[in-house]
Structures are given as structure tokens and as C-alpha cells.
Amino acid sequence: MQCTSIMSVMHYYEVAPIRIVRAGADVFTYHHESSLEIGHIVKIPVGRGSQTGVIVAPVTKPSFTTKPIALVVEQEPLPTALLATARWMSSYYATPLAAVLSTLLPRGIDKQRRTRATQPTHELIREQRALTPTVDQQAAIDTIRQSTRTTHLLHGVTGSGKTFVYKQLAHDAIAAGKSAIVLVPEIALTSQLVDEFLQDFPDQVLLTHSQQTEAERHGIWLSALRSTTPKIVIGPRSALFLPLRSLGLVVVDEMHEPSYKQEQSPRYSALRVATILAEQYQAKVIFGSATPPVAEYYAAKQAGAPVITLSSRAHNRASGPHIEVVDMTKRAQFTRHRFLSDTLLTDMERSLATNNQVLLFHNRRGSAALTLCDNCGWTATDPDTGTPLTLHADTHQLIGHISGYHMPVPTMCPVCRHSEIIHKGIGTKLIESEIARLFPDKNIVRFDGDSGKEHSVDSRYKELYDGSIDIIIGTQVIAKGIDLPHLETVGIIQADAGLSLPDFTSEERTFQLITQVIGRVGRGEVAAHVIVQTYQPTHTAVRAGIAQDYSTFYTAEIPERSRYHFPPFSYLLKFVCAYKTEKAAVTNARKFAAELRAELRQSERLLGPTPAFYEKQAGTYRWQITIHSPSRTHLLELIGTLPASGHWQYEIDPVSLLS
Ligand SMILES: Nc1ncnc2c1ncn2[C@@H]1O[C@H](COP(=O)(O)OP(=O)(O)OP(=O)(O)O)[C@@H](O)[C@H]1O
Ligand SMILES: [Zn+2]
């Protein structure tokens, strides 16, 4: 009734819309006739339309007139810890709160949906034995249990049994009535981890992954929000944002993986967000890896965060593999095939004869990296990016992996009309076709960015585990984390392939991949072999990778980072502009660089402007400027000097300077 509503007290709230309403404004004031809580998701009128928003604070009646909140979308408010984390992300990454909230909340949050089952339908695959913890594992568990710190780095060599440590600490969290989040770097590793956790926590696992539909994601989000019992959440970086009532543990498994950095705005690091979230909930975080990023390792030590080491393999009969290095410049080792050495082929044959598995790793997709004319040197390049096109022989296409550009393979040179078009370099598709020719009766499966959903490690995990796939060929997708009992021979086709990329993390990435791939074997009772083929056997990243020697790599890499002002010694800020013409890109980049130089401090360095590695993209020319600074705060201030135009993008803490 009219008069009672006048009599009743109005409540005023700051509401943060999940779409940007006006640049620079994160919150707006609205009123509601009943009392609401911080974190309530509501519908608010904005202009002529309506928007979803989140209540961030109660306020006193303002002097201006306010509009009413139209509707409360969810009875259960968002956990305040999650909201606080969102606000932290907004300021730490200099990103509007709306952009953060729309990342945090599921799409179609205001839709009414039929409720559905959220338990993963997963048939248990891995054989479970009751494990007695090793001395190292028990010590790690005890240290983390007793620690009063938030973040812990679990540096455990490949096969050291980090999963067991995670599970024990997850049991602790559940026993205390708190949830746990276990992050996996990509869907490839989900099945294995879900299997491990479902065995221990059959009714409590909530699984999120990138291939779920909008409705499925929403369903899982709601069941987290409404759940009164603790859950084990398993998923990619976005799993951090499930609205849990309580949280006792966050695990970031394979913390060195680049997928923990989001590449669209907000360009956040799941590692940083995990720590902030855990602080809000008073939970513990474990970053696990056999190859922690050197910058993270250094920072953890500096901050006095516990660094816990598992230095040997967990399985009592695991002896580590026998490793052989093949120098690719010595062609006498390649009498049977041009890139599959005699040693590798012999070892493959031996494993296959005894029904054991073989894994071949190569970090290049497609069939060949370079297509060129043997007569005049013309190279097939992507008109959008200026970088070489990759041959995909199965579809007779040349494809740009960044732009998606494709064209049929030319039968003659477009410049000199010569018919000798040659293809150089090795890709996983070429390896697959060669292996299929050499081993025609074997079950061969390729896993890489081209192999599609039905050939993902996740969907074919059972065949990988039980050994019915004989030969596994793949890129970095198969390099990490997987634990396969029948795997006996591992071949690295060209260990130095990644070193040619001009990026500050290329060597680290090469070291990590070699270490991780070798670590796929020698984990159990099978006496395993690894054959590492490389043109650069003496390169530090290659040598330390082969020796599985983190400390050698770390000791060599840290002074390099210091000398060239890279993390952990400097923070990085990258500005990239995109213009229709090269001239405009150069002129504007130079102009902004001059403005930035005027703001620079003594301890800071500006590099550029230079053409971006992918100089041409989507019909624009891209130029970039990089700033190295010991002060992250000052870099955030520099973002504030960005010209107000749609031509510029910035990224703070980039993990690559190439994209
Ligand atoms: N205490 C134990 N006793 C015997 N076997 C164990 C023990 N702990 C783990 N294992 C076994 O050792 C193998 C490796 O364990 P896990 O996959 O957890 O290694 P990881 O540390 O995660 O390695 P990676 O870094 O390569 O992923 C698994 O097969 C696991 O079942
Ligand atoms: Zn030519």
C-alpha cells in the first residue's frame, strides 16, 4: 500500500553494474524498500534499460534522487571474500570493476533455468591403492599443516607424488567444514585429477571446464552458491570464482603453465588471485610444480614463503628413466629416417613389441613450419601477421596459427613461377603421418591444438591409461602432469625448437617442457627410456632440462633476468597500439613513447617503440612499447597517461612480449 511504503525506511546501496555504464565510474547508488546484503545480485534500471549489478556497500540517503533496485536475482548473496577479491583485481590490474565482475559471474546469470545434476559423470579409471606417504610427502604435509603463512610453494620433481599431498590437505579442509579448489592448467589434465579426487571424495566434487555450456556453468555456480556442505572444486583458473561459503585450501597444480594467465581483460594471474582469495577466506594456497617459474621461486624465497621440496619420485620402485641424447647435427645417427634417429626408432620398436606405450613430443603443430620456393626464396607468409604460414598436409592448406588465415598450397611459386615449392621444419602432423607409415598396425593418436574435442587427452584418458593407444604424439598438451602406467619410451623430436622465439621466457619454457616430458616416465615399475634429439645439446636450457636439474637452470637464469631487467627484478608494462596504416602506428607510438620518457624515473627503462612480433593483425599495424620498472605502482600510474583513444591496449605483468 502506498502509505506504508512511505512510512517504511528506505535502504540505499552502492551497486556495481557488470557492464561498463560510464568510463571511470564503478558504482552507482540505488534504493530498495527492504534490507539487502553486500553481495546481493540485483537488477537495476540504467538509462532506458536494465542491468545486472552487485551490491557493494550500504550508504546513507544521498542528496540526489535515486532509482529503485528492480529485482533481487539471487536470494543468496555473493561471499564477501569473493567480492573483496574482485575489487582487489580491479585496482591491481587497472581494470574497471564491471569488467572484473562480468568475468567472475556466469553468463546468463539472470536466466531462469531448469535445475540439473552437477555431479561429474565420470567412470573411475585409475587403479587406486592405499598409499603410505613417503617421508618427503609426510614432511610436506606436516609443514603445510603447521604453517601460518597463506602461500606455499611445493617444488616436487616429476612423479614425486604431489597429488597425494594435495589430497591429504583437501581432506583436512573438508574435515574442518571448508571447501577446496584445485586448479588444473588445462582440460587435458582434468580427467586424471577428477579420477583421483572422486575416489576420495565421491559426492563432493564440482567440476568446471571450458567445454561446459552456459547452462551447465550456471548450474554449477548455483550449486556452489547454495551448497551448505563443503565441496572440492576442480577446474581451470576461472574455478577460483565459484561462490563458496567457506574455503580452506587452494591448489594451483603445474603452476608454471602459461594458461594461469588470462590473456583478455582482466589480464590476471591466477596465482596472484589465488593468494588474495585465500587471504580473504583465511585459506591456504599450494603452488605445485616440478619446474616453478624462476620469478615465482625467487619471489617466494624473498617473501619468506615456505618452499617445500620433494626431491625424489614417490613410487618406491621408480628409478627414473634412462636418458640418451642424440645430437641432430651428427647425421650418421639418422640412417633410417631424416628426423627420427636410429636410437629412437630402435627403442620404439622394442617398446611396441612388448605392448608398451611410446610418447613423441614436439612443440610445433601442423606438417611444416616453412613453405618456400627453392628457386627464388619466396616464403609463404600470413598477410595478416607477416609471419610464416604452417603447412597442414592433410588438408592441403597453409594456415596462419595466430590469425586463422588459410590458403591452398600453391603448385608453383607466385613470384618466379618455378614449380619447386619445398616445405621445411617438422610439425606434429608430419610426425603422425611418418609414424603411421613406419608403424602401420599401431594405434596412433595425435594430441594438439588441431586434434579437436573427440581426440583430447581428457576424452581419451581411459585408452591412454590402459595402454590401448600405442603411440602418443603431441605438443605441450601431453608434456605435463599425465601419469600413465604403460608408458615406456619417450622421444623428444627437437628439444631446442622453442629457443628461436625472441622472448624473455623462451629458455625457461624450453627447460620446463624438456623436464616435464622426461618426467612422464620412470614414475613406476616400468624401466623407461627417453631419447632427446637436439641441435643444441650444450645449451643451458636443454642441458639442465635433460638432467632434470632445476637448480642449475635457476642459477644460470636469475643473473640474466637481473642483467636485462626482467621479472623478478623488474615489473613489466606493455603498451600496444593498432592503426590502419603503418605510418599512423609509428607516429603515434613515437609520440606516446616521448610522453612516457618524460615521466620515467632513473631506475626505469623504456624499450621501443618497435613493431610487435605479430606486426599485422586483423588489418591493422601494431607497434609496442615496453617499460621495465622496479615500481609496479608507478607502472599503474603510467597506464593513467594512456591517450584516450581506442587504439591502445596495455598489459601489466605480461608473461610474453611477443603477443
Ligand atoms: N606414497 C606413495 N607410494 C607409492 N606410490 C606413490 C606414492 N605417492 C604417489 N605415488 C605414485 O607416484 C606417481 C606420481 O604421482 P603424481 O602423479 O602425484 O606425481 P606429481 O608429483 O604430480 O608429478 P608431475 O609433476 O609429473 O605431475 C603416481 O602413479 C602415484 O600413484
Ligand atoms: Zn620463386
TrEMBL record:
Domain of life: Bacteria
An individual GO BP term: DNA recombination
Protein family (similarity comment): Belongs to the helicase family. PriA subfamily.
Coiled coil: none
SMART domains in the record: DEXDc, HELICc
Assembly, per entry: Component of the replication restart primosome.
Binding site for Zn(2+): C373, C376, C413, C416
Biological role stated in the UniProt entry: Initiates the restart of stalled replication forks, which reloads the replicative helicase on sites other than the origin of replication. Recognizes and binds to abandoned replication forks and remodels them to uncover a helicase loading site. Promotes assembly of the primosome at these replication forks.
Gene3D superfamilies assigned to the protein according to its UniProt record, in alphabetical order: P-loop containing nucleotide triphosphate hydrolases, PriA, 3(prime) DNA-binding domain
EC number: 5.6.2.4
Catalytic reaction equation(s): ATP + H2O = ADP + phosphate + H(+); Couples ATP hydrolysis with the unwinding of duplex DNA by translocating in the 3'-5' direction
A Pfam family that the UniProt record links to this protein: Helicase_C
NCBIfam families: priA (TIGR00595)
Ranges for domain Helicase ATP-binding: 143-310
Entry's Gene Ontology cellular component terms: primosome complex
Alphabetic keyword roster: ATP-binding, DNA replication, DNA-binding, Helicase, Hydrolase, Isomerase, Metal-binding, Nucleotide-binding, Primosome, Zinc
Originating organism: Candidatus Mycosynbacter amalyticus
Name this polypeptide is given: Replication restart protein PriA
Gene Ontology molecular function: 3'-5' DNA helicase activity; ATP binding; DNA binding; hydrolase activity; metal ion binding
